[in-house]
Amino acid sequence: MDDKVIKTANKEAAQVLEWGESRGIETCFSRAEKLKSCPIGESGACCKVCHMGPCRLVGKNAEEEAHGICGASLPVVAARNLARMVAAGTACHGDHGRDMVFTLLAVAEGEAKDFQVKDVKKLYKVAGILGIEFEGRPVNDVAKDVASRLLEDFGRQRGEVNYVKRAPKKTQERWKKFGIVPRGIDREVAEVLDRTTMGMDADADSILTHALRAALANGWGGSMISTDLTDILFGTPGPVKAEASLGIFKDDEVNIVIHGHEPTLAEMIVDVVYEPEMIAYAKSKGAKGINLGGMCCTANEVMMRHGIPTAGGFTNQELGLMTGLIEAMVVDVQCIMPALTQLAKKFHTKIITTSEKVKMPGATHMQFDEHRAKEIAREIVRTAIDNFPNRITQRSHVAEKFPVIAGFSQEYIEYMQGGRWRASFRPLNDAIMAGRIRGVVGLAGCDNPRVPATGIHKFLATELIKNDVLVVSTGCSSASCGTAGFLTPEMALEHAGPGLREVCVAIGIPPILHLGACVDNTRILTIASAMADEGGLSDEIGGMPAVGIAPEFITEKAISIGCYFAASGVPVIFGGESPVGASKEVTKIMTEVWFERFMGALHFEPDPEKILAMALNYIDKAREALKLRKYEPGKFGAERVLMDMAARRILEKSAAPHAGVGGINEAGS
Ligand code: NFS
Known about the structure:
Largest sheet: 6 strands, parallel
Radius of gyration: 24 Å
Number of domains: 4
Number of strands: 15
Number of helices: 28
CATH topology of the largest domain: Rossmann fold
Bound molecules: FE(4)-NI(1)-S(5) cluster
Helix content: 40-55%
Strand content: 5-15%
CATH class of the largest domain: Alpha Beta
Shape: globular
Structural class: alpha/beta
């Protein structure tokens, strides 16, 4: 294996990296090589919660014998470390959800004139879930009530987070039994920090149980709120064509990258770059036009709704900058490498920060405010255009880019299985029962420079679909699959097993469905709940032939996501070394004990082949427990015939219920 392949499995990324390395430019890849991680901290055996330490709980019998100065055991220290990661991840997604609530509230109160409720149908759906009357009422009144009700989820001290009731009854019963129904998002985060400080909870199981409660406050709270309100404000996604690669930048146009997570400013920038005056302004500076691209989860948000191309996930952010073609990288929140501003000094790129919560020395700060959204978006785009004459790089290092089909919301997946009038999960459940589809895997999470970045995603994506496993992807995993050219219907013909291929061809979908950003992992929760309601499989989320995999995880957010899936009943496998690997007891709680209580688990497994084997084993075991037909490639049981596209079009002449639905749309149409 040569050097570039070891660092990143993405050919275009390797090309840029090679160019940068020949000029001595530092990136996360070179830093990952230089900075060896501390094995004590890496495995969760280091306690830093007070100033008697840090205490390092190491030694031959550390599990039983090692203690911190206060007496905390290794399992307690490891459990505390994991719980604090969950709290941070929940806080991060929770804050994102809160910002979406404030935006909806500002829109409903007429204070954010540049936005409006785009998906009234989804607003009514959410109002219905929350028990808010919507019929015959002005849209903004309903929106105000929805926003106000969801805002209560953050500060509630007693009771339950609103969306808990969306889970299947049996799943809720398990949560009640073990005391992990989340009350308020902020309360659960605060309690993790409280419980895990020095001299508090000294029982690893108790600490981890509360970590699950905080994680559920993310999955069925912060993140789910974020997904719903983003759909309400900007439209529920339906299939859309786009492109993915570092090759999306154009030599003769002003290139702007929107990077981060919150879609509010990004939505405005999408509007503004198409304004004739703005294009004329770009031409006045010598450019042929304006080219907008995305990075990380902001990319996923605007790709899902507008077909804006993505330059890739987390590890591509520095490489994008190194193309020398970007006039402005506009960042909002989360997963923004502090290295960007140092690197930008070597090029003409302006790093523009836009959030109070993310400031960087060396960046230009242009504070976003939803009350003056378009005005600020125009200022940002003009700043990028003004920078075009400063560009030194003449030509892109990378030419190749890949087509992508994105935009699979729960609403669209339901629609595609029966049309407007018969939308349901019946065909998917039937296909699983008959063994055409072996099971479902959520392939999610970050791409990591400590492994051949994006490579494990690519390996698992191809192997899973080869094994007739339907893959749904989110976050940087979607970027990894997209920049590899995997998010197309052709992927089914070339790589999927016979059963999955047949289903994909019948419905006209790729075998890997791009569900959106990391907060949109909650779409998987609501899809799994709908499948449980549909019948024929498990009557709760637990026990479904479904697994979550985050093969290159990096962030605390990913840990929080892994925990809310585990608590909801999904076995989850993370790649890389376990952040609590030092403690056998903690490992056992997260795998065996959680499986017994919730039918979910959180494993850490560095070997991609083993990850695959574990996932297939979980799926087959679930099939067996549900007494489903034994999976055999190419051999299926009887099932209902899926409607093909042609038949569905005859049935439906009326307008599609969701943006982009009714066939695959070209970007922007
Ligand atoms: Ni998810 Fe999205 Fe990517 Fe990881 Fe970061 S961008 S929120 S955390 S690195 S998948």
